[in-house]
Amino acid sequence: MTKKFFRSYSVSCLVALSLLVSCRGAGGATAVIDGGDTVSMDYARRLTIVDYPGYTFVSIQNPWDTTRTLHNYLLIPDSLPLPENLPDGTIIRTPLKRSIVHSSIHCQLIDELGAGEAIKGVCDAQYMLAPRIKEGIKSGEIADCGVNTSPYIEKVVEVNPDAILLSPYQDSGTYGKLATLPISIVECADYMEISPLARAEWIKFFGRLYGKDAKADSIFEAVKSSYNSLKEKTSGVESRPKVLLDRLYGRQWFVPVAESTIATLIRDAGGVNPFDNLNSSGSVALSAEQVLVDAGDASVWVIRYLMPQPMTLQNLKAENKIYSQFDAFKSGNVYGCNTSKILLFEDSSFHPERALSDLINIIHPELSDSPSTQYFFTRLDEK
């Protein structure tokens, strides 16, 4: 998935307990800011939110160089005049009323916050599964702005958004023509957080963008409570089987490394991620042969796929004969989620407790009163 994402301009930033220092552009002048009220972050490590009289300062850490800042934002209610002596940062008037959102994940979240009417344009419209978003695209209320890697600039201008929400990725270059428009770009680096709850906590940022602070905070508290209760169930398990994720994409198999949300999810579900020896964030591309060496003995295999019909073990073997050499395939312990029909990414990104519940039921059915998946995954049939 990371291949779809964009990279942004980097800016240097140092955050300390007693002061907040920010600068735009490497080597730029700094401005010391004090007297703010820092919003508590229980898990998120890439996000800092500080409330000041008249505005909120948001700083996003660069996930690929944690000594630097990806972007600073100044969220200022549109009912107030611009405060004086503002620090450097991209000014965004809140709540957002007209936004273009590149990701179906963030569309779903914004809709859950009760701000779906503020989505006026999307990219990759064919991948939008949320019913309200699909209906909006069909009716023309929500504009189809093309693919996220190369949106229709004319359509973007026509929508006239307050902001464009997109996800950055490493070494992607710049935003091209988008960067030349007088439109704020919100870089949603939540997917590069180090744990499922850390990513989910970014709802606090999105809530403040759309004027839904209290609702966002309430949703996160419920998510946190449910997730930690489920995690406690597996804290004492002795048997922790290896869990293999996904399959080849072209000639590469993208596996979750130790400091990634999915690896944390597997561990919290009472499993072992075979690639925890790879110390990085996100995912790493390996060959099928290397994955077989490292995870051929995994007893559980979970696949996220996009197909018109449900995947079967026969489909899997027909794709590549190497799949039949994995232990999980031999035992028929392969589970799949068809993301063309099920809102896996949209629902689990900010509700990781739902994915955790499924994984626990798959890995440790003895811990569940009803040992079946509830949200996303089903065992693959043989044919």
Report on the structure:
The chain has 383 residues and is an alpha/beta fold. It has twelve helices and 21 strands. It has helices spanning 104-112, 131-139, 153-159, 196-200, 203-209, 213-233, 261-268, 288-295, 313-319, 327-331, 344-348, 352-363; strands at residues 11-15, 20-22, 31-33, 37-38, 47-52, 55-61, 68-77, 90-94, 99-101, 119-122, 143-144, 146-147, 150-151, 163-166, 184-187, 243-245, 253-256, 283-286, 300-305, 334-338, 378-379.
What are the salient characteristics of this protein?
globular; alpha/beta; 27% helix; 383 residues; disordered N terminus; 21 strands
The shape is globular
State the helical fraction: 25-40%
Beta-strand proportion: 15-25%
Terminus-to-terminus distance: 28 Å
Count of discrete alpha- or pi-helical segments spanning 4 or more residues: 12
Q: Segments where pLDDT lies below 50 for 5+ residues?
A: 1-32
**Record field, number of beta strands:** 21
Q: Which helices and strands occur, and which strands form pairs?
A:
Layout: E1 11-15, E2 20-22, E3 31-33, E4 37-38, E5 47-52, E6 55-61, E7 68-77, E8 90-94, E9 99-101, H1 104-112, E10 119-122, H2 131-139, E11 143-144, E12 146-147, E13 150-151, H3 153-159, E14 163-166, E15 184-187, H4 196-200, H5 203-209, H6 213-233, E16 243-245, E17 253-256, H7 261-268, E18 283-286, H8 288-295, E19 300-305, H9 313-319, H10 327-331, E20 334-338, H11 344-348, H12 352-363, E21 378-379
Parallel strand pairs: 7-8, 9-10, 9-14, 10-11, 14-15, 16-19, 19-20
Antiparallel strand pairs: 1-2, 1-7, 2-3, 4-5, 5-6, 6-7, 12-13, 17-18, 20-21
